[in-house]
Write a structure and sequence with these properties.
The chain is mainly beta. Helices cover about 5% and strands about 40% of the residues. The chain has five helices and 61 strands. The strands form 13 sheets. Strands 1, 3, 4, 6, 11, 12, 13 and 15 form an eight-stranded antiparallel sheet that branches. Strands 2-5-14-7-8-9-10 form a seven-stranded antiparallel sheet, with no helix packed on it. The radius of gyration is 43 Å and the shape is elongated.
Length: about 850
C-alpha cells in the first residue's frame, strides 16, 4: 500500500518535473556540444543526414553519450535509432531514460534503461540498482533487431503512479507504434541524465549506431476512449476492426463485446493482432450478405489507459467480386526506349465496382504462369494501383499507388495472355494483347503503354485498346489519356470449331461470353445429343461441348448456336453456324500445295496456299512448312498454327507473314482463310522447294518451284503467283503449274485457282484439252494440256507441233522413253520461246517399240489470238 509520505514525494517530483522543462535534439545543427550539451566517452559525430553516429573504433568496448534531464514522472520519452547490424549479447545499445549520474557505464549509476538488442534481439525495459544488478521490467517481443539493418522509433511513458508503458515501431514505412507492455516501479523517482550506452565487439560493428529526434517532454495522460477507425470484411465470416489506438487485450478479445446486425449476431472469436495492437480480428458464425451494409456495435473495449468505448457503431460491407469489377486498364509491356516514364514494365488495375475490394490473395496470370498471391491492398471504387517489380517500385510510385510484386512476370513485347484471378480462382478479367493493338508502327517499338479506351467495355479486345496519347508515354495511376466512349453493341459470333476427341468439341467465338448463357445446352445443335456446355476460362471465348455419342471420322457436321450473350449482355443475332468434325491425321497428298507466291510485289509478302483435296478433317496445328537446302536436307520447319485449327474437305488456307500486305495486293474472298505465320520458310525468288510435313515428320506434299515455270511472255514475274492446275495432278510436274491469270490479279489466295482444270482419265492414247487456246494469261484457256496413256511401258515417242504449212514449230519429244501416263503443256510458243501467230496447228505424236510395234496420232490445236 502506498503511504501518504510516498504520495507527497510523488507530488513534489511532479512539480519539479514540470518546472525543469524538456529535452529536444534532432542534431540538425551538425553537432552535439550545445542546445543541449551531450558529454561522454568514446568518439561520436553527426553524419551528413543530421544523425548522431558512433565513431569509436575500439574493439570489445563500451562507450556512452549523455545529456542532462531531470524529467522522471509524468514523462514521455521518444527517439529514433538505427543499428546497421544484427544485434547479439556483445552488440547492443542501452538507452537510459533515467540515470542518476552522467557516466552511464559506471556501476554505481542507477535508474531505468531500454536494452535494444542482446541475445533475444528485443526492446525491453530494465531497472539498474546500486549493486550493479539489473531487473527486467518489460519483456519486449523477440526478434525485433534480428536483421542486418534495423530502424526503430521508440516511445516510453511514465504516469504519476510510476507506471511505464513501452511502444516501438520497427516497420520500414513507419506505420505506427506497437504496444510492448507496461510495468509499475516507483523505486527511482528522480534522475539527472538521459543518454545512450553502446556495447560493441569487433571492427565489423564500428560506426553502425545512429540516433535521432530525441524528445523528452511532459506526459499528457490519455483520457479519451478509443474510437473505430475502420472495419473491413476480409472473408465471408471474418472482419478486421481497426481502433484509433492500441487496446488492452482482455476487453478487446471478449467476443461478446462485438455485435453485428442483418442476422449476423455476436462474434464467436476476437483476437488482437500480435503486431498491431490497435487491430482486432473478428470471426462470426453467420456469413455476411454480399453487397449489404452491415452495422457493427462495439461495447466495453478499453485502451491501454483504461478508457472504455461504449456503444460505438460503424458500417462495413462484404462483397464477392464479380467478373470485370477489377480490370487490367493499362499495360506497359515495352518500356524501352523510354519516352519520359521510368524504364519499367507495369500493369495498371482499376476498380470499376461500387465497393472496396481487397486484392489480398489475388493472382496475376501471364500465359500459363500465375504469380504468387498479391499482398493486402484495399482498392477503392474508381481507383488505380500499379503492379510492378520491386526494383522499379520507387520510380513508378511517383505516378501513383504501387503494389510491388516480386513474382511480376516479364511481359512479352509481342503480346500474350493476361488475366486476374480472385482468391476463389474466379477469372475477373482476361485479355490476349498483341503489338498490333498499338495501331502505330512507331509507338509499338517501345516507350508507350497500351490503354483501354472505354472501361465499360472490358472484353472487346483490340477494338477497345490503343497506344497511349499522353506525352509522357502512358497514364499510370490516373484516367487513361485515350479514355472515350466506345460501347460494345455487337453480338458475339461463332468463328469455328475444333475436335478434342470423338466426344468433345470446342466452339470458338470472336469475344468473351457471358458464362451463364454459354452454359445452356439448349443453345447448341450439332445433330448429336450434348451432355454439357463448359465455357473455358480465362478468356471465355471458347465453349467445350461434351457429346452423348461420338462423332464419326470423315464426316462433316454443322454446329448451330443461338441465344448466347457476350460479357456486355449483347445477345447473338439469329443463328450462327460453323462446320465441325473429328480430326484425322493426314497422309500423303490429303493436303496439297496449291498456290505459291515466292516473288512478291515490293510492298507485298510471300504466301503459300494449301488445299484439302481429300475427305479427312485435318488439324492445321499438326502441319508444318519447311524448305530444303542445297543438299536436299529439310530446314526451317515452321508449325502453321499454335492453336487447333481445322481444315475441312474442299477448303483452302493461305499462310503468310503479313496478312495486311496480302489484302492490299490481292483480292481475298474469305479473310478467315488467311493464317498469319512468322516466319515462313525461305522462298527464294528464282527457285526453291516447299515441303508440307505432318507432326510425325512425314511428307504430306512437296513442290520444287522455279521462276522458269511462269508463262514465258510475262515480262516481269514479280507479284505473280504460281497456281496448281489440277489438285489431283502430280505435284512435281511443271506442266501442272501455271502463272495466275492477269484477270485474277495474278493471284487467287484462298479460293479456286484461275488456272484450275480437272484433267481426269483419258479415253484415247493421246488427248488435247482445250483444242482452242488463247495464251494471253487471262485465266481462260491459256494453255493446252497434252496427255497420253499407253497400255504398257517401254514406248519411245516423238512429239512435234506443225503449222498449217507443214513446218515444225515446236519439238516436245525426240526419241523419248515414255511411261504409261504423262502430260505436257503448250502455251502457244515456238521452239525459241516466241509467240506464234493465231491459226490452226497440227500435233503429231509417234510412238514405237524396239520390237517394231508403232503408231501415229494427230490432233488439231487452234491458237485463237496472239498472246499479249
Amino acid at each position: 500500500m502506498r503511504t501518504a509520505s510516498t504520495c507527497l514525494l510523488i507530488t513534489a517530483q511532479l512539480f519539479s518535473f514540470i518546472a525543469s522543462g524538456q529535452v529536444q535534439d534532432d542534431f540538425s545543427d551538425g553537432d552535439y556540444s550545445a542546445q543541449p550539451v551531450w558529454t561522454g566517452q568514446g568518439e561520436w559525430t553527426v553524419d551528413g543526414d543530421g544523425r548522431l553516429q558512433s565513431n569509436h573504433t575500439v574493439a570489445n568496448s563500451s562507450f556512452y553519450l549523455s545529456t542532462a534531464n531531470s524529467l522522471t514522472m509524468m514523462t514521455q520519452w521518444e527517439f529514433q535509432l538505427r543499428l546497421s547490424f544484427n544485434t547479439s549479447s556483445a552488440n547492443y545499445v542501452d538507452a537510459y531514460l533515467i540515470a542518476t549520474a552522467q557516466d552511464l557505464s559506471a556501476q554505481s549509476t542507477t535508474g531505468y534503461f531500454l536494452r535494444i538488442g542482446n541475445t533475444q534481439d528485443e526492446v525491453s525495459l530494465y531497472r539498474k540498482d546500486p549493486s550493479g544488478l539489473i531487473f527486467k521490467l518489460i519483456d519486449g517481443t523477440d526478434g525485433i533487431t534480428a536483421s542486418a539493418d534495423n530502424s526503430l522509433k521508440i516511445k516510453v511513458t511514465r504516469d504519476a503512479a510510476g507506471k511505464f508503458r513501452l511502444y516501438r515501431d520497427a516497420s520500414a514505412a513507419g506505420t505506427g507504434f506497437v504496444y510492448e507492455g507496461e510495468a509499475s516501479d516507483p523505486t527511482y523517482l528522480s534522475g539527472a541524465y538521459f543518454g545512450f550506452l553502446v556495447r560493441q565487439s569487433t571492427s565489423g560493428f564500428f560506426r553502425k549506431h545512429f540516433f535521432d529526434d530525441v524528445l523528452i517532454q511532459p506526459y499528457q495522460p490519455d483520457l479519451t476512449p478509443p474510437s473505430i477507425e475502420n472495419i473491413t470484411a476480409v472473408s465471408a465470416t471474418e472482419a478486421a476492426l481497426l481502433f484509433s489506438e492500441a487496446v488492452e487485450p482482455v476487453s478487446a478479445e471478449n467476443p461478446a463485446n462485438y455485435q453485428a446486425d442483418n442476422g449476423i449476431g455476436p462474434a464467436i472469436q476476437a483476437a488482437r493482432d500480435p503486431l498491431n495492437h490497435a487491430l482486432v480480428r473478428l470471426r462470426f458464425a453467420a456469413a455476411f450478405p454480399s453487397g449489404a451494409v452491415n452495422t457493427l456495435t462495439v461495447q466495453q473495449v478499453s485502451d491501454l489507459s483504461g478508457n472504455a468505448l461504449n456503444g460505438a457503431s460503424a458500417g462495413f460491407s462484404y462483397y464477392i467480386p464479380r467478373p470485370h469489377d477489377i480490370i487490367i486498364d493499362e499495360i506497359m509491356a515495352d518500356p524501352s526506349p523510354p519516352v519520359s516514364l521510368p524504364e519499367a514494365e507495369y500493369i495498371e488495375l482499376k476498380n470499376t465496382s461500387a465497393y472496396k475490394i481487397d486484392l489480398a490473395g489475388w493472382r496475376l496470370g501471364f500465359n500459363q504462369n500465375l504469380t504468387a498471391p498479391l499482398p493486402a491492398c484495399m482498392l477503392l471504387p474508381d481507383s488505380f494501383v500499379l503492379l510492378t517489380h520491386p526494383s522499379h517500385a520507387a520510380a513508378v510510385s511517383a505516378y501513383g499507388r504501387v503494389l510491388p510484386l516480386p513474382s511480376m512476370p516479364s511481359l512479352s513485347n509481342e503480346g500474350g495472355l493476361l488475366y486476374l484471378q480472385s482468391p476463389a480462382g474466379l477469372t475477373i478479367h482476361a485479355l490476349a494483347y498483341n503489338n498490333d493493338w498499338y495501331g502505330s508502327e512507331i509507338k509499338k517499338t517501345g516507350g508507350w503503354s497500351l490503354e483501354m479506351v472505354d472501361t465499360r467495355n472490358p472484353c472487346t479486345g483490340k477494338g477497345n485498346w490503343k497506344a497511349s496519347t499522353a506525352i509522357q508515354g502512358g497514364s499510370p495511376g490516373r484516367k487513361n489519356a485515350t479514355d472515350a466512349v466506345n460501347l460494345d453493341e455487337a453480338p458475339p459470333r461463332l468463328l469455328r470449331t475444333f475436335s478434342i476427341d470423338s466426344l468433345t468439341l470446342a466452339a470458338v467465338f470472336d469475344e468473351g461470353l457471358d458464362s451463364l448463357s454459354a452454359s445452356a445446352i439448349s443453345s447448341y445443335n450439332l445433330g448429336l445429343s450434348l451432355t454439357a456446355a463448359l465455357p473455358k476460362a480465362p478468356m471465355f471465348n471458347q465453349v467445350v461441348l461434351i457429346l452423348a455419342a461420338p462423332m464419326q471420322g470423315e464426316k462433316v457436321y454443322t454446329l448451330s448456336v443461338t441465344g448466347i450473350r457476350d460479357c456486355r449482355g449483347n445477345a447473338m443475332a439469329g443463328e450462327n453456324k460453323a462446320k465441325a468434325g473429328l480430326t484425322s491425321l493426314p497422309t500423303a497428298h490429303d493436303i496439297v500445295l496449291n498456290e505459291i507466291l515466292f516473288n512478291p510485289p515490293s510492298a507485298g509478302a510471300d504466301y503459300v496456299e494449301i488445299y484439302n483435296r481429300g475427305n479427312k478433317v485435318v488439324d492445321v496445328h499438326n502441319l508444318f512448312l519447311a524448305s530444303r537446302n542445297g543438299a536436299g536436307q529439310l530446314t526451317t520447319a515452321i508449325r502453321l498454327s499454335e492453336v487447333p485449327l481445322q481444315l475441312f474437305p474442299g477448303e483452302y488456307l493461305v499462310i503468310t507473314e503479313d496478312p495486311d500486305a496480302l489484302y492490299k495486293s490481292y483480292f481475298v474472298k474469305t479473310p478467315s482463310s488467311v493464317l498469319p505465320c512468322k516466319p515462313l520458310p525461305s522462298l527464294p525468288d528464282d527457285e526453291g522447294t516447299v515441303v508440307l510435313l505432318s507432326s510425325s515428320g512425314e511428307v504430306v506434299d512437296e513442290f520444287s518451284y522455279s521462276e522458269k515455270y511462269h508463262f514465258k511472255l510475262i515480262a516481269n514475274a514479280e507479284g505473280v503467283a504460281l497456281e496448281r492446275v489440277d489438285p489431283s495432278g502430280e505435284s512435281q510436274a511443271p506442266q501442272n503449274w501455271h502463272s495466275a491469270a492477269s484477270s485474277a490479279g495474278y493471284g487467287t489466295p484462298g479460293y479456286l485457282n484461275s488456272q484450275y482444270r480437272l484433267l481426269g482419265d483419258i479415253e484415247q492414247a493421246i488427248e488435247v484439252e482445250p483444242r482452242v487456246v488463247s495464251p494471253d494469261n487471262d485465266g481462260f484457256d491459256d494453255a493446252a494440256i497434252i496427255r497420253y496413256s499407253m497400255e504398257t511401258a517401254g514406248y519411245v515417242a516423238n512429239l512435234v507441233i506443225f503449222d498449217a504449212g507443214g513446218r515444225p514449230v515446236r519439238y516436245f519429244l525426240k526419241n523419248a522413253l515414255l511411261g504409261t501416263k504423262g502430260s505436257w503443256t503448250w502455251d502457244g510458243l515456238d521452239e525459241q520461246g516466241k509467240a506464234l501467230p493465231p491459226g490452226p496447228y497440227i500435233l503429231q505424236f509417234e510412238v514405237f517399240k524396239l520390237d517394231g510395234k508403232k503408231n501415229q496420232f494427230r490432233k488439231v490445236i487452234v491458237l485463237a489470238r496472239k498472246p499479249n
